[in-house]
Amino acid sequence: MSGPSVNPAYIPAGEGRGARSSSRLKRIDRIGDVALYLICALAALLGVIVLVLVGYQVIHGAVPAISKFGLGFLVHTTWQPNFGVFGAGSLIFGTMVSSFVALAIGAPIAISIGLFLSLLAPKGVSGVISPLVELLAAIPSVILGFWGILILAPFVQKNVEPWLHDHLGFIPLFGPPQTTGSSVFTASLILTIMVIPIIASISRDLFLAVPRDIQDGASALGATRWEVVRGVVLPSTSSGIVAASLLGLGRALGEAIAVTQVIGAGSAINKSLFDTGDTLASRIANQFPGALTELHKASLFYLGVILLVIGLAANLLAQWIGRRFGPRTLAAK
Amino acid sequence: MSERAFDPSAPLTPSGNLRRRQIFSRVAESGATLAAVGAVAVLVIVIAAVVSHGLGALSIDFLTKGTPVGIAPAIVGSAAIVLVATAIAMPVGILTALFVTEFANKRVAAQIRLMLDLLNGLPSIIIGLFIFGLIVKPTQQQSALAASVALAIIELPMIARGSQEVLLLVPGSMREAADALGVSRWRTVLKVILPSALGGILTSTVLAVARAAGETAPLLLICSVFDSRHVSLHLTEAIPNIPVTIFELSEEGNPEGFTRAWGAGLVLISFILFASLGARALLARSKRRMAS
Questions:
Q1: Chain A interface includes B129 (CB < 8 A)
Q2: pTM as predicted
Q3: Which residues of chain A have pLDDT under 70?
Q4: pLDDT at A3
Q5: Which residues of A touch B265 (CB under 8 A)?
Q6: Which of A53, B20, B119, B194 counts the most CB atoms within 10 A of its CB?
Q7: Cis peptide, bond prior to residue A211, ω within 30 of zero
Q8: Is the CB of A257 less than 8 angstroms away from the CB of B220?
Q9: Looking at the domain A75-332, which fold is it?
Q10: Which of A33, A129, A227 has the CB atom closest to B184's CB atom?
Q11: What is the DSSP letter of A178?
Q12: Per CATH, which fold does B58-291 belong to?
């Protein structure tokens, strides 16, 4: 506080100041140390408490629905708020399908971006493109979803979906396009955009950590750049890539707003990706503000419980894989 | 190779299998380059769409008046909610980071890091449900304060992780020097460690603010029924905010509303882009300075 002056704490006792003030300072220091420790520990504890409370509150809100529908809620597919009948089956299906499609498209692209940024691009180029890719994650989901309805969905419905239907229509996933443009496929594309920056930046860091001399060794043996990647870089980071993909999956599973804007809030399980559908998170965002009955709200909380369990599982698995098979343990072997 | 005789006059270019391998490698390289270009292209396309559609809506009235002309109440409301959220999250985040780097032993530190990662991975709609059950339901009222608490929970892990990273960059020799001089722990932390990590802490806070400003899902559940005609700072009631405004306009399906939504989106996205780009530039600089 008093600027750059000498800290009074270490002026030796008996030098101008009495031994008494020195002992007072010592006492202040002892109290200060304990106080700072306690405040810091309390802050850290607060995070833990919040995490526990989140679980408690979400389950607590779902109790009426849990006691009414039990575990059958997970498989029943009817969702009719007017009749008080709720089931999460089609929503769990929609969540899984949209997230996996997003991951199937996004992960390879993101890993390629990671490779480009870490191994191919000159330092100046990657220094520009890295932050730009990360900026993709900074676009708010509501804006991405809005862009999705007005620009992406019509484009996909007019160009991409008919093409896929014509050429790959024998696969039931690619059915005839719907008229609105709202579809599970459009939602997956939006989720892809959200997943890519997460996986790309993690995998870039992973690839940067692969020791240079092993790569140089492979090159010296005559491996091409791709063979170095295929034979050295990818195998030594595979666990990290899996963990990164799981983190991306967690992000895709939990996205509510953008999905609710483009997925079309369908209630049926459709084979075709080009039909409407709905996900757990998007159903909560869509119906919670207008939910009138207690049972409706509790059912939406129940969806939250399912989402929480799936999301935590994906995240914990990612952490566990990251720690268990992380680059450090690999290096130690 | 072996079946062909050595021909010293042949050009030194690869042939046969090696040539195939090299072409494959080239193709893979261009694929990776294309992926990176594609990601940047998507960013540019989205931002260009927001800018080109949003500029049409932008005017002085749009920024200074309430509904139906402008979105001033939403701008003020969003700023207030995020400000309060940051005032809650910043101290807790910094103290958590200090606990992990300065006080906790390895095992406890790992647990807390895991907790922060899990908190960071929570879907924001779940945080909305949580705050709805914790605050909105018992008080029977949506409120800006509840929204601030929700956004604070979203900001907390980002600030804590970011601060932690910079605190770990503070050289151990500075701590040892302070210890050797007999300086007590808390003075070391407050006067040596925190000041030298301040730049990094501030930038990670700005990044968290940028993320929280665009967060829609929790606000939709706990701060969405408001009067958007007038600027309001009654934090115990729901107040207008930009994300919910955009969301509701986008669901209405009315072209005039779409223009307003683009305008609001432009305001939001320009704040977020400037904040995160600025913060990143600062972070890179302060990290470089600390590392050297």
A1: yes
A2: 0.89
A3: 1-20, 326-333
A4: 42
A5: 142-143, 146
A6: B119
A7: no
A8: yes
A9: MetI-like fold (1.10.3720)
A10: A33
A11: P
A12: MetI-like fold (1.10.3720)
